[in-house]
Amino acid sequence: MSFRSAMLALALLLSWQQLLSSSPSAFAFTFPTEGQATLTHYTLPSDYVASCGCVGRSTHYPTAALNRLAYGSNTSFAPSCGLCFELRLVSTPLANPPPPPDDPDAPWGDGIFYPDSAVASGQTPSVVVKITDLCPGAGGPWCNATMNPDGTLAGNQLGSLVHFDLAWPSVAIPNSFFPGDHDYGVWNVSYAAVSCDRWKGNADQGAVGSDWDQQDAACCPRDPAPSGTDVVCPAYYDTVGDGTALVPNTSNILSKGKSSASSASLATHPLFGPSSTTTTTMMLACGCLFL
């Protein structure tokens, strides 16, 4: 390993230790199984093994990242890993709606606002996603909801405590999923935890479970509670140091030797350029290459 790569690996290790020393209570939050949330989208490379450690093939189907507060851990896997949610578009909060016919002088806007009746009856665009990734607390104004030291909760820029970051564009979701002739950036959505039997990837044996090569450094149950019956992942910080939580075996042998984490090819980091396989594996393990 070159000196430059060694220094990068050391810096990553120190950052990793700093994350693990963070107070777990800062990330302890149980959110309702259904409610309102905000939604953005991000680019997740095909076959990429993200924070939970779900198999790379899961990216061939709809997946999403969850904000740290709702995710349940500040790094790696968490109780939310593997959960499936139906997300339904509601409105574009940063764009005003068109003026109503009876008030032509109202502020003009090209936003989209679906009637409550349309949302409730399932007539708006929706998708069932599997949680495979973490949207970190430092991930801009949308993923930064937090629990204050006094136990009070602070939402994101729009006041939401729950935020989904949809992996899109994606081969799994039509390009036309978001309506309108331009990208509105952020949406209000309704969400509901559902059985992963409704997730398109659930019938694909190669798309479920966690990456074999990461073993107990990953956790991605096929259909965890509350909507399924599989075991729920612990928070990563409860499995290290003085933690006693055990990591359930969710490994999928069909992914053996296929993950980006086990690849001998070099990855390119946007700040540091090409990195060694050792350094790349460390970065993949914390889900920080593309976050």
TrEMBL record:
<protein>
    <recommendedName>
        <fullName>Expansin-like EG45 domain-containing protein</fullName>
    </recommendedName>
</protein>
<keyword id="KW-0732">Signal</keyword>
<dbReference type="InterPro" id="IPR007112">
    <property type="entry name" value="Expansin/allergen_DPBB_dom"/>
</dbReference>
<dbReference type="InterPro" id="IPR036908">
    <property type="entry name" value="RlpA-like_sf"/>
</dbReference>
<dbReference type="Pfam" id="PF22514">
    <property type="entry name" value="EXPB1_D1"/>
</dbReference>
<feature type="domain" description="Expansin-like EG45">
    <location>
        <begin position="49"/>
        <end position="201"/>
    </location>
</feature>
<feature type="signal peptide">
    <location>
        <begin position="1"/>
        <end position="22"/>
    </location>
</feature>
